[in-house]
Amino acid sequence: MKFDVSVNNWIWMHGSSTIGAPGNYGTLGVAAVTNTPGSRLNYSHWKDLAGNLWLMGGKTPNGFYNDMWKFDVNTLMWTWVNGNSNLNTAANYFSNCSSAITDMPGGRGENRYCWTDACGRFWMYGGTNVSYATFYNDLWQYDPTLNLWKRINGSANSNQPGNYGSIGVAAATNIPSSRWGGNASIDLQGALWLFGGSENWSTFKNDLWRFVPDSNCGGCYNIAQAPIVNLQSSDTIFCEKQCIDFTDLSTNNPISWQWNFAGASPSTSTDQNPAGICYNSYGSFDVTLIACNSAGCDTLILPGFINEYQIPAPTIIQSGDTLISSTAVSYQWYSVDSGLIIGATNYNYIPTYAGSFYVIVTDTNGCEGASNTIFITGINNHLFNSLAITIVPNPFHNEVTLSFNYSLHINKTTTIEIKIP
């Protein structure tokens, strides 16, 4: 049966509507319209990387199967690919991690612990046989490309007790007991998970197990990985309202992104590398990135990643002949007429000529800001760069001339003459 989610209806795709319909095996390895598995229940099942459906084993009123079938979703045909068409076939294997064309699990049902790894190989654990009196704890792997079974772990004997070891601690001697039923799942790292089941018909388990396949014994070398999120921005600390760009540095090839920019405009983006994210208010802001691919998602939250500081607005006052700036970390005084004043790097400055002056300061955040401009119209006498008095003639009798030479500007000298009769 197929359930079409677009129309919310079931569709009968293949097989008989008759209860207990027999199977038709056809030729091993050859697909045919007339091929079909026999009626059964409680079997292992998988989906391969191409989307085709597979099943193995299961129970009938007369016994247990170990046959492997493939259903091609495009041609809608079954192929008998492995195992025996007879019931209650015994398992055949030599040792764990060995693989031979003759190796295969025995007939079984309730083998519901089944996984498909990232390499497209099928895994199966346990099950039951012989009127539900025999239970297994063997772990098998089937390679659909090679059409080979391999026993990975567990015992060749039935009805085995488990060995728990210490909870949360992996050990080579740890193993679940022989069991049937239960549930299974595989994680993003390719580890197999097994939960519950029954060791017989009267006791039921709630133990959770994790098995990490050895890379030398069936482990998948091409395990799909969810992204590991990382990011950078064109700036993280700035001193005025501006727009910045962000770059995704996530690994494992994400295919979708969700950005959240607190305090910014726009505040969200689904671009891989958002540009022109504008911060129009001062403060400290979080940045969040969620990156996803087919294997899963990862989230990175960076509290206070963006810090936008307000530029300082210093003020200057005049006290007598001295200009004084408000407090900052560093100072540089300027003349409106001539620009930077060399050496004027204190919080105060004494002008040596009339003009307009301002100061640029740096605050504790490294931000610079310019002050108001203040105009100086006159200079006190003690600001004279030089003052020279000349008496002519000297000595004198009836008349004398006094000459005062002074400078209010570095490049300008003024002379005043006074004659005394």
List the helices and strands and how they pair.
Layout: E1 2-4, E2 9-11, E3 44-47, E4 53-60, E5 63-72, E6 77-82, E7 113-116, E8 122-129, E9 134-143, E10 148-153, E11 183-186, E12 192-198, E13 204-211, E14 231-233, E15 237-238, E16 242-244, E17 246-248, E18 256-261, E19 264-265, E20 268-269, E21 277-279, E22 283-293, E23 296-308, E24 316-319, E25 322-325, E26 330-335, E27 339-340, E28 348-349, E29 355-362, E30 368-370, E31 374-376, E32 387-392, E33 400-409, E34 412-420
Provide an overview of this structure.
The chain has strands at 2-4, 9-11, 44-47, 53-60, 63-72, 77-82, 113-116, 122-129, 134-143, 148-153, 183-186, 192-198, 204-211, 231-233, 237-238, 242-244, 246-248, 256-261, 264-265, 268-269, 277-279, 283-293, 296-308, 316-319, 322-325, 330-335, 339-340, 348-349, 355-362, 368-370, 374-376, 387-392, 400-409, 412-420. It has 421 residues and is an all-beta fold. The strands form ten sheets. A five-stranded mixed sheet has the order 15-23-22-18-20, with no helix packed on it. Strands 26, 27, 29, 30 and 31 form a five-stranded antiparallel sheet that branches. Strands 3-4-5-6 form a four-stranded antiparallel sheet, with no helix packed on it. It is rod-shaped and about 150 Å long. The relative contact order is 0.07. Mean pLDDT is 88; it is low at 381-387 and 406-412.
